[in-house]
């Protein structure tokens, strides 16, 4: 993880001078006005405690996909904030070339970083004080410790560690997530709830056949049916497989399409996909396709990438840009 150390920021509290009017002994400020604010008002102050998530996807110079994910665990006591975050960086080959470091199509580097800091108002200062990373063939274990300054809102925590380096964490609304890293990997005892969630996620395998279908009426009044059948295999090297996509159109008024003079036509495409899984989340990338040209189909396709997660043992959610779909395990 390459980050530039940011300068620590300080905040000062200024007391404005109080003006004095002519003495009026008969007027006395009520004692209640001099008392501290009610406890209910103090409790509404920003609180950094909780679990925060961040994810970023990019492509490197070689065209390989890079997925960065962080899971922050923070605890606030008074104005003091302490905790740690787990950072996972996953690299995935998109052109079938193996990585030199491990001769596989992908790898993941995981780091646990300890942090401490201070919260003043809605401004936060955090400093990395240590890390744990296991060196491997694709990771030398070296890291740089940095400082962050940011702003805390009810649902987001915006952090910066340089003039052009920053990230926005999102507060996790519920605990129904598998942990990004196993606690025992860093010498800590696993939490019972996390262990249960991790166990249920592992049992929900991606292996198998998945189906998706959508029926609609297009702008021309034609009936359109889209159907996909995904065949996925998950191993230690990642996820591989393919899916067949069939699109059928039927004229609503019974007339013929200009391309073939008939009232219906159908296109079929087979896409090859590869990917990687981390926790219940996964990334899939189309790397190839096969389609036969016809009078109604030029057989040209665009390859997409998907983000997704295993919702339950029989449901797989995929998204790409503004679109998403729910795959169901084939019975």
Topology:
Layout: H1 39-42, E1 50-59, E2 65-77, E3 80-92, E4 106-120, E5 123-133, E6 147-152, E7 156-162, E8 165-171, H2 192-203, E9 208-217, E10 223-235, E11 238-250, E12 264-278, E13 281-291, E14 305-312, E15 315-320, E16 323-329
Antiparallel strand pairs: 1-2, 1-8, 2-3, 3-4, 4-5, 5-6, 6-7, 7-8, 9-10, 9-16, 10-11, 11-12, 12-13, 13-14, 14-15, 15-16
CATH domain fold name of the largest domain: Lipocalin
Structural class: mainly beta
Low-confidence stretches: 1-43, 189-203
End-to-end CA span: 43 Å
Gross CATH architecture of the largest domain: Beta Barrel
- Oligomeric state as shown: single chain
What tags apply to this protein structure?
Lipocalin; mainly beta; eight-stranded antiparallel barrel; elongated; eight-stranded antiparallel beta barrel; 331 residues; single chain; 2 domains
């Amino acid at each position: 993880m390459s980050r530039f150390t940011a300068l620590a920021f300080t905040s000062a509290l200024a007391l404005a001078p109080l003006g004095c009017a002519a003495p009026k002994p008969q007027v006395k400020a009520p004692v209640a006005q001099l008392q501290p604010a009610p406890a209910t008002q103090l409790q509404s102050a920003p609180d950094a405690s909780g679990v925060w998530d961040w994810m970023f996807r990019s492509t490197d110079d070689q065209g390989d996909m890079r997925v960065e994910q962080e899971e922050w665990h923070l605890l606030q006591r008074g104005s003091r904030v302490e905790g740690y975050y787990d950072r996972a960086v996953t690299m995935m080959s998109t052109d079938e070339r193996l990585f030199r470091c491990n001769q596989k199509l992908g790898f993941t580097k995981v780091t646990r970083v300890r942090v401490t800091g201070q919260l003043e108002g809605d401004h936060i200062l955090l400093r990395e004080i240590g890390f744990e990373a296991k060196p491997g063939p694709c990771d030398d274990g070296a890291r740089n410790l940095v400082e962050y300054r940011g702003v805390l809102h009810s649902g987001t925590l915006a952090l910066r560690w340089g003039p052009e380096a920053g990230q926005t964490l999102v507060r996790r609304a519920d605990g129904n997530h598998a942990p990004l890293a196993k606690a025992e990997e860093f010498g800590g005892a696993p939490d019972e709830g996390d262990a249960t969630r991790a166990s249920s996620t592992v049992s929900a395998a991606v292996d198998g056949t998945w189906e998706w279908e959508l029926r609609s009426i297009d702008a021309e009044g034609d009936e359109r049916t889209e159907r996909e059948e995904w065949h996925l295999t998950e191993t230690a090297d990642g996820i591989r497989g393919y899916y067949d996509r069939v699109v059928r159109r039927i004229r609503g008024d019974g007339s013929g399409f200009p391309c073939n003079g008939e009232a219906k036509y159908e296109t079929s495409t087979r896409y090859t996909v590869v990917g990687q899984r981390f926790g219940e989340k996964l990334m899939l990338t189309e790397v190839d396709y096969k389609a036969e040209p016809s009078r109604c189909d030029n057989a040209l396709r665009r390859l997409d990438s998907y983000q997704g997660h295993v919702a339950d043992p029989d449901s797989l959610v995929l998204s790409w840009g503004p679109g998403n779909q729910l795959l169901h395990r084939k019975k």
